[in-house]
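Example for tutorial group B:
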């Protein structure tokens, strides 16, 4: 299981922890861990879930457009910023129902963690929001158990959110407050962000630049994943940079799950020596196929125009990538981040 955290890990006593539910709910409440575990009020819920950081495979992006991740504070992750576990807890919808439901035109739920960070000269708690339509579908969990064991502190104990099918950043760790709000949490970031992860796949073995001795075939294995409740249907690999492709036999794919990855393995034909390029692609059940995209050119140009160095990595950027006014103007023009119908 991948460990991904941008901040110091809070130390919270489970016996004194409680969750505040407030904002546009009919009856604001405080619930302890014992309250949430009371199955007479909240039915227990278990799901196998893949959590993937939206920065997964950033190191490949860095190799093309250096600066975003290798010298800045953002971590230069490879294929490992993803993990799958069986989580147990309760549906947030059941908890909201326990509070009498939403009132006053609430459309989003803001999730706030106990961890803090420093950004744009302010100390903030980590906070994001998810649309109530996601909650209503029982796709937002409050969990305290992971793979049959108590949730580890490093993974957000005593209670974290797990948002099924969304990027990992929405699954807030060390959760202590849920607030019903009219619209999306507008100050969670300084530019538009994605919610559902697109279809993606990766080779985990052999590793990059690994020396492989073979006799006409190379043992290859990896993972394939798609967000939003979609799942990989077909995986193909190539030993010549994508000129010729071989389908991974379906029996070599792990079982399908609505919100989890499929791992795969295959024996890939290879009749050459020297440097070769192994690549993988997959299709999900919506027939979307993964491909690379450019993301950092404009940001790099902004640093160059200002004559600002990327180093030292411990200092915050002295200028915002997008002002709050520009952020609000963008969504006023482009429409909301999430829609109900």
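The residue assignment follows.
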């Amino acid at each position: 299981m991948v460990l991904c955290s941008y901040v110091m890990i809070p130390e919270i006593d489970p016996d004194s922890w409680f969750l505040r539910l407030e904002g546009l709910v009919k009856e604001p409440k405080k619930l302890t861990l014992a309250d949430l575990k009371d199955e007479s009020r909240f039915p227990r819920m278990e799901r196998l879930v893949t959590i993937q950081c939206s920065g997964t495979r950033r190191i490949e992006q860095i190799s093309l457009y250096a600066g975003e991740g290798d010298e800045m504070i953002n971590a230069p992750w490879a294929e490992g910023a993803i993990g799958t576990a069986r989580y147990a807890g309760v549906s947030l919808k059941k908890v909201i129902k326990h509070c009498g439901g939403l009132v006053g035109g609430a459309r989003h739920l803001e999730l706030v963690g106990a961890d803090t960070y420093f950004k744009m000269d302010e100390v903030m708690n980590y906070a994001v929001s998810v649309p109530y339509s996601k909650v209503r579908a029982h796709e937002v969990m409050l969990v305290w158990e992971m793979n049959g064991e108590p949730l580890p502190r490093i993974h957000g104990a005593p209670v974290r959110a797990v948002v099924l099918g969304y990027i990992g950043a929405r699954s807030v760790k060390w959760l202590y407050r849920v607030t019903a709000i009219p619209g999306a949490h507008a100050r969670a970031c300084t530019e538009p962000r994605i919610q559902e992860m697109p279809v993606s796949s990766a080779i985990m073995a052999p590793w990059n630049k690994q020396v492989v001795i073979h006799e006409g075939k190379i043992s290859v294995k990896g993972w394939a994943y798609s967000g939003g409740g979609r799942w990989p249907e077909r995986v193909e690999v190539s030993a010549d940079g994508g000129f010729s492709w071989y389908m991974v036999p379906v029996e070599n794919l792990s079982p399908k799950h609505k919100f989890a990855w499929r791992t795969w393995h295959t024996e890939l034909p290879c009749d050459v020596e020297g440097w070769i390029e192994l690549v993988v692609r997959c299709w999900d059940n919506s027939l979307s196929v993964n491909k690379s995209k450019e993301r950092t050119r404009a940001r790099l140009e902004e640093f160059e125009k200002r004559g600002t160095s990327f180093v030292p990595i411990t200092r915050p950027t002295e200028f915002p990538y997008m002002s709050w006014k520009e952020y609000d103007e963008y969504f006023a023009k482009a429409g909301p981040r999430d829609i109900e119908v």
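The radius of gyration is 22 Å. Compare this with the pattern of hydrophobic and polar residues in the output above.
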